[in-house]
Design goal:
Number of helices: 9
Number of strands: 8
CATH topology: Rossmann fold
CATH architecture: 3-Layer(aba) Sandwich
Order of helices and strands: HHEEEHEHEHEHHEHEH
Strand content: 5-15%
Number of domains: 1
Shape: globular
Structural class: alpha/beta
């Protein structure tokens, strides 16, 4: 067996190391609010601090009447309304639901372990504004980011598979509205990257004619069993979050549903040959790096097209800190180029 060489972190400056330590300390103090869930109307509020050059609108959609039986098996979880946020680079925005030939759409699923996060929070707002701006520049202005605010598992009735119900309904809304599936990219980060892969899997089973043209997963939390290699375990001293935090979120979301099921962990999907072209971005200082490598390998073995890009020494969540990591800009450029190609 060949020896695994661990990263030396020589790419980090003193300023980066100091900033990351402060972030780690802040997240250790963060508490997940359980026992309360926001309504669809509360989740549909458009923020006022929108970055220049971007426009955001929101609408609330009803649940799809054609949800797959696979995500209707929990008698305590019922389909609900879902707010959709539309990020546009136009001022003022054109009607976001209006399809047009060749319009590139990124269906973006935020991270947060299915218990925190929102399409317009302090992570999503700058990232998605920059992403839609870059995509619009490369698409003659015909670009849109659609970001659903799915139910978070802070209460039992929002546990698995509530998020999948909301995401499937939101994607179906775009297809039924006339948007071409080949022009849609299903994307997500962290827990949202896992959901992006699982949503694509559900579509492949229930509505294969509506498979998206591309899939993008940023450091997907694709293995909810958190079985880590020695390499991944060795990143604990530099990664931002602890594995215990991930496990706590997963337990809250899944309840008693098995973590090794493909609907929980996309690393256990049997990827078909007709799987959409996929891009995976991950840092080598991420304790969840194994999952990205596993998914990439399985897509390739299934006959699909996949590109795995690993950024040296980047921890989980690197895309949320453009002031610390220059790779955020590079990552956005790679996503846009991948979609355009």
């Amino acid at each position: 067996m060949s020896e695994i060489v661990l990263p030396t972190r020589t790419t980090w400056t003193i300023e980066q190391a100091s900033a990351l330590q402060a972030i780690r300390n802040a997240f250790r103090e963060q508490k997940i609010t359980l026992g309360h869930a926001q309504s669809a109307a509360e989740r549909a509020v458009v923020p006022s601090n929108i970055p220049g050059g971007a426009s955001i609108t929101a609408t609330i959609i009803p649940p799809s009447p054609n949800l797959p039986p696979l995500i209707l098996q929990n008698p305590n979880v019922h389909p609900g309304e879902t707010p959709l946020f539309f990020y546009s680079a136009s001022q003022p925005p054109s009607p976001p639901e209006m399809p047009s030939p060749g319009k590139k759409i990124i269906f973006f699923i935020h991270g947060g372990g299915n218990v925190i996060g929102h399409p317009t929070n302090e992570v999503s707002l700058p990232f998605l504004s920059k992403l839609v701006g870059k995509l619009a520049q490369n698409s003659s202005g015909h670009a849109l980011v659609v970001a659903p605010s799915f139910r978070l598992a802070t209460v039992p009735e929002n546990q698995f598979p509530a998020a999948l119900q909301d995401l499937y309904s939101a994607y179906s809304y775009l297809i039924q509205g006339g948007h071409a599936a080949k022009d849609i990219t299903i994307a997500g980060e962290s827990g949202g990257g896992n959901l992006a892969l699982i949503l694509t899997y559900l579509i492949s089973l229930s509505l294969p004619s509506a498979l998206p043209g591309h899939v993008v997963a940023i450091a997907p939390a694709a293995d909810q069993t958190y079985t880590l290699s020695s390499f991944a375990k060795a990143q604990a001293d530099v990664d931002i979050f602890s594995v215990d935090v991930y496990k706590s979120m997963t337990s809250q979301y899944l309840g008693g549903f098995p973590a090794h099921d493909p609907l929980a962990s996309s690393a256990f999907i049997s990827f078909p040959a007709h799987w959409p072209k996929t891009l995976i971005l991950v840092g080598t200082a991420d304790q969840l790096v194994d999952a990205s490598r596993t998914v990439a390998k399985k897509i390739e073995e299934g006959g699909g097209s996949v590109k795995l890009i690993e950024f040296d020494d980047l921890p989980h969540g690197w895309w949320a800190f453009p002031s610390i990591f220059k790779e955020v800009e590079e990552g956005i450029d790679k996503i846009v180029h991948f979609i355009q190609s």
